[in-house]
């Protein structure tokens, strides 16, 4: 056994670790120590066959209930899935069966919707963005008046910029026109509800939850809740959506199945419940305040060095204007630093996750200065 582990360790050494402070472009982070213990307890569980793992299934239901509380939904129906991609795919399955195949979504939408398009033969209509990189709701309103639209997707915390689409306006349009509304809060779901007052701006509408006319929301524990991968969340308004998702699974302990994965891990659900219980609202507020404080430390340091941000950070995501963003990103990687790039603007993209400390920010800025000096 020792020999195998030694061999595996040599491969693991090739990976970059979050703790080294060089990963600046990921929406995942070091997992919480409590999660490590929970994983080992639930490692053998399979939520694909929940009749065998009744305790784990109960934990998934409890996790969904707590996610419902965050999202202001008293009767949530949903699952802890493999990530934001699966959450979005499940929502798109429902839209297609319930309403039809034409979906309008912002240009900032995550590429998981392109996978949904291919798999389900969807017709995706990309709405342009406003100057503030939000979906242009005027365009959406005009479009639904002129054409048949079955679903709208709004993003609460875009992957690129951390911007928040005006979900309230989208929900009004959806209601008036009997259109399905899905909100992708894969990242923002664990940030927006916990943002401290000092980081909330008057001009931004932060409401994205079920207090509005929303059908489903993606919210991922393996991003800002610090759960191990895979742990995504998909929450529907209520259990009436079940009939669009379930297929017969005659040889299992429960004869219906809704998720895309069949055999699926139970530790994601256990960790989601465990960490939500551990953090509580106060703990999550503290975590979000810490990353927001660091985001603004980063912003001030960058501006002092003459770099310009594309927009004032809304969440813990920074976009640095750069005409040669792809080239800069490549050079930074050669020097051992890993931000990423925006694709709807010429900008470097940085996600200030909990593993990024002030000293890592200082180091990054020195390397960025060097790269830009060349
Ligand atoms: C807004 C948004 N939705 C969906 C996803 C996809 O999530 P995953 O990579 O967990 O499938 C991401 C990932 O970054 C995201 O930012």
UniProtKB/TrEMBL annotation:
Gene transcribed to yield this protein: mfnA
HAMAP family, sorted: MfnA_decarbox
Name of the protein this chain belongs to: Probable L-tyrosine/L-aspartate decarboxylase
A Pfam cross-reference name: Pyridoxal_deC
Positions of post-translational N6-(pyridoxal phosphate)lysine modification: 223
Keywords, alphabetical: Decarboxylase, Lyase, Pyridoxal phosphate
KW Magnesium (keyword) present: no
NCBIfam families: tyr_de_CO2_Arch
GO molecular function: aspartate 1-decarboxylase activity; pyridoxal phosphate binding; tyrosine decarboxylase activity
Entry similarity comment: Belongs to the group II decarboxylase family. MfnA subfamily. Belongs to the group II decarboxylase family. Sphingosine-1-phosphate lyase subfamily.
Biological process terms in GO annotation: carboxylic acid metabolic process; coenzyme A biosynthetic process; methanofuran biosynthetic process
Known EC number: 4.1.1.11, 4.1.1.25
């Amino acid at each position: 056994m020792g020999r195998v582990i030694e061999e595996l360790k040599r491969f693991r050494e090739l990976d970059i670790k979050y703790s080294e402070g060089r990963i600046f472009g990921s929406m995942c982070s070091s997992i919480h120590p409590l999660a490590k213990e929970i994983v080992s307890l639930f490692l053998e569980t399979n939520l694909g066959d929940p009749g065998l793992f009744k305790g784990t299934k109960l934990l998934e239901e409890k996790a969904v209930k707590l996610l419902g509380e965050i999202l202001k939904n008293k009767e949530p129906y949903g699952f802890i899935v493999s990530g934001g991609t699966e959450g979005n795919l499940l929502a798109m399955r429902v839209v297609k069966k319930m309403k039809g195949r034409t979906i309008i979504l912002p240009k900032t939408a995550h590429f998981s919707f392109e996978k949904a398009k291919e798999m389900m033969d969807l017709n995706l209509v990309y709405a342009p963005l406003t100057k503030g990189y939000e979906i242009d709701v005027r365009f959406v309103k005009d479009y639904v008046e002129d054409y048949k639209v079955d679903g709208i997707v709004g993003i609460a915390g875009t992957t690129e910029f951390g911007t928040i689409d005006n979900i309230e306006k989208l929900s009004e349009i959806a209601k008036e026109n009997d259109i399905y509304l899905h909100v992708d809060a894969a990242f923002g779901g664990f940030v927006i509800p916990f943002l401290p007052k000092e980081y909330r701006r008057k001009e931004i509408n932060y409401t994205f939850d079920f207090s509005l006319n929303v059908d489903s929301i993606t919210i991922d524990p393996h991003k800002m809740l610090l759960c191990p991968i895979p742990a995504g969340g998909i929450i529907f308004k209520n259990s009436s959506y079940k009939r669009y998702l379930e297929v017969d699974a005659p040889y299992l302990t429960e004869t219906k199945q809704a998720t895309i994965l069949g055999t699926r891990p139970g530790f994601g659900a256990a960790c989601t419940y465990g960490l939500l219980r551990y953090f509580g609202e106060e703990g999550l507020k503290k975590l979000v305040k810490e990353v927001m404080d660091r985001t603004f430390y980063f912003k001030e340091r960058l501006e002092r060095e003459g770099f310009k941000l594309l927009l004032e950070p809304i969440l813990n995501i920074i976009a640095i204007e750069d005409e040669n963003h792809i080239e800069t990103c490549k050079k930074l990687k050669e020097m051992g630093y890993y931000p990423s790039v925006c694709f709807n603007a010429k900008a470097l993209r940085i996600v200030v996750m909990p593993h990024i400390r002030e000293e890592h920010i200082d180091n990054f800025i020195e390397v960025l200065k060097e790269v830009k000096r060349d």
